[in-house]
Amino acid sequence: MKKKTVRDNGKILSGICFALIIGFARYLPVVALVPLTLLYLGLQRCRAECGHSGN
Question: What pTM value is reported for the model?
Answer without folding.
Answer: 0.41
